[in-house]
Amino acid sequence: MTVSLLRNSWGRPALVACIVAVALAGCAGKSKRPKLVYEERPVELLYATGADRLDRGLWNQAVDYFQEVERQHPYSEWSRRAILMTAYAHYQANNYAEAIGDADRFISLYPGNPAATYAHYLKAICYFEQIVDVGRDQAATGQALANLQEVVQRYPRTEYAADARLKIDMVNDQLAGKEMTIGRWYLRQGDTIAALGRFRAVIDRYQTTSHAPEALYRLVEAYLTLGLAEEAKRNGAVLGFNYPGDAWYGDAYKLLTDRGLRPAIEPTGKKGGLLRNLPFRKDKAATIKPPSAPIEEPKAN
Question: Do residues 85 and 53 make contact, with C-beta atoms less than 8 angstroms apart?
Answer without folding.
Answer: no
